Structures are given as C-alpha cells and as structure tokens.
Fold this protein.
Amino acid sequence: MKLIEHFVGGKIITGKSDKKGKVFNPATGEQEKEVRLASKEDLDQAVTIAQRAFEEWSLKPSLVRARVLFKFKELLEKNSDELTKLIVSEHGKVYEDAKGSLTRGLEVVEFACGIPHLLKGEFSENVGTNVDSWSMRQPLGVVAGITPFNFPAMVPMWMFPIAIACGNTFILKPSEKDPSCAIKLAELLKEAGLPDGVFNVINGDKEAVDAILVNKDIKAVSFVGSTAIAKYIYENSAKNEKRVQALGGAKNHLVVMPDCDLDGAVNGLMGAAYGSAGERCMAQSVAVAVGDIGDELVSRLSKKAEALKVGPGMDKSSEMGPLVTKEHLDKVKGYVDLGVKEGAKLVVDGRNLKLQGYENGFYIGGCLFDHVKKEMRIYKEEIFGPVLSVIRVKTFEEATKLINEHEYGNGVSIYTRDGDAGRTFASKIQVGMVGINVPIPVPMAFHSFGGWKRSLFGDSAMHGMEGIKFYTKLKTITSRWPSGIRSNAEFVMPTMK
C-alpha cells in the first residue's frame, strides 16, 4: 500500500513518527493509501529548515520571486489533469468540479505573479521641513497553513502563493484525509525553481496542529475548517503571539424573492446546495422562500433533486459524488434523521441510495427539507452534506432579520429582479460575501474571501490585498538628513553672508 510521506527541504522525508492515517477512495469505500502523521519533533525540524531558507528567499527581489510563480502557473496548467484526478480519488467530488476548484486556486497564483506592484509602498516628501516619510511591507518569516479536506488544492493555493511571493517561507499541514495533492504541488514548486525549504508539507493530525501553534518561529497561521477548530486555532495562535486568520463554518442562505427568475434560482440552488456533495463552506444550504413562492420553489427543487445523478467522480455523467469518509456519511445521515425527528418535512430522502458496483462507497442522495423552523438544529448547524432546507417567511424584512440573527455570516445570495431589494440587501445584510442573482458569491482572486461573525476569527480575509497585508509587516520610515558640506574650505574670517 502506498505510503504518503512529508515534503521538507525540497525532498520527500520520512520523519521520526510511526503514526499513520488511512486514506480512502470515497467512490469505492476502499483504503488505497496510508499517510505518515508527524510528531512535534518532525514539525519543529521542518520549521528550522524553513527558517534557514527564509534568510535568502526574503532577500530575493520581488521580480525574481514572481518569475518562480509564473513558471509554477505554467506547470499547474500542464499538470491539471493529474492534480484533478488526485482530488477526485481522495475527496470524491466529480471531475469537472475538482478541475474548477483547481482553477480558482490557479487564479490566486496569477494574482501573486503581480507581487512587484502589490508590494509597492507609499512616499510623502516634506512632511516636515526637510523631512520625508515612506512605508514598506516586509515578510514575516516562517508562516503556516492548516487546510481542510474539501479543497485539497484550492484552499492551500489561497494561502501559499501570496505568502511566498511576499518573501515568507511556508509550512503546509493539509488534511490527512486527502494529502496527495499537497505533495504534488510541492514537487511542482521545486520544478518551477523554488529554492529548497521555502515550501514544505507536513502531514499530521492534532499533534502537528498543536506543534504549529506553539512553535515560536512560526509567525502567522492561516486556517480553514470548522468554527470550533477555527476558534481553537485563533485563541492559541493569539496566546502564542502569532498573527492569525481562521475561517470557520457557515450556514449560507439563498433568498428567493417572489419576483425572481425562478428557473435561475432553482438551477442556482441545485448547484450551490448539491455541488461537491454539499462539502463546501460556501454551499447554499438554506433556501429562504419569501411570500407565496414556497410551494412552486419546493415543487421544482424536488423534481430536480430526485433526478440528481449521483456516482463516482470520474464518471462524466455524475453530477454529485460521494462524501469523503464513512464517518462523515454517518454524520450527515444523522442530521437527516434529526430533521425528521424535529418535525421538518423530508420531501426528498437520499439516505438509502445504493449504487451498483459501488455498494461500499460513501454515497448519499440529495436531501430536501421543507417547512424548516429557525429553532431546529438542522437550520442552526452546518451539516456539510447534500441537505437543502427550505424555510418560509412572509416578507423581505423577515428574511433579512432571520439571516442577520444567525451565528454564521459567511456567504449569502438573493434572487430578485428588484434593484431596490438587491441594493438594500447588499447594504444591510450582516454577511461577509454577498451574491445578487449569483448562487455562490466567492470573490475572484484579486478581491478577498472571508465571512463575518463566527465564520471568521482574526481580522484578515484571504487572498487579494487582504492576503498581501496578512503576510507582511508594515514599516514606516521618517527621515531628515543634516545639511551637507557643499563647498570647499574657506580660510578667511567668517562674516555674515
């Protein structure tokens, strides 16, 4: 059985730990690989190597760093099929979805290629008499990224391209559920000309995470995952005086107004709720039906959810793949059981789905609840599976109030033809990323990604200019120079001139 090791100092290393994790193919339910899990000693060794690499990498001109990323971009495009297949084989999402997520990561690499411009400071002449002032941004040192299973390529690429472009060195701790993609990215970076030790991959579990949080040479931590762990990362990073951006969970709403393009809203909901089997922090898992549109909305959604083609990710006809593990499948099924118990109407039940030839795969069909109430746990909590809840409200104001009172504030969308409603919604909603007639409001790479409330801990969003600011320290210089000697020596008695 293949054993996935760490990548440190430009090469694959074994490390000193004997702990191993299991890596499954979600489509078949079979364990296909093992991954070595790092000890604290393994992590500390990687940081030492990264710290040495920082001394030289941070002094490279930004244009030199950009050229490495240009080459990396070229290699990503050349190897996109292999990377996509790795994502499918370990996460389970369908091929085109996996390829799309890789593209969204590639866009951050493209953004980071502009680092010579992005790092420019500001200059003010004569802020006082013969006094000038200017600012510059300098790298932090060794930084770390802790990334989730649902996007094994995209989320790491939201972090490390900007981090290394700014002159930092990087330790990536990917999810132990699907680690192969991270190793391939490390190999491509080396092929692109990145010096050894600038980018390193340490596979591990909580022990590796805790080692990151306490290592004094790691200056900043980026995290994407559940809210509970995001809060843990935030608190412990702050306690150990690290800069931190920790993106947590979500319960994203899509508001369906009576005047909207209903076909557009339904199609948007299907992709946003069931794409990637709902394993997205930007999944639209709650449809808020305003006024009397609820019956027609549920009718159309139910027909499409029942017809949803579920199958292995490499099958080009599949619209939705399996969940990532058996444990996660059981958890999602448990939430569906809970929804029925709580009194919500289960319109479409995907719990008993079995695929011929893939009986052991981690599959569940699309599930649709109607008449969900805000007091129910299936409404309050992030399910992270293909479960869409419809909650009915009478007015636009009630919909807005419902969303603003929820503990999460990651993403939200509204479907409407009313410009006033769209504008008011965008202004008043207490959510970090907003879509208007757009189902999944993920910003492009040159803007920044981040939620509000308990969806983000720390004060910095990811990529875009927020990413540049997070991975650099601001330094401001104020200078005045004494008058120089501008003439030769004089030998006559000094007089008033």
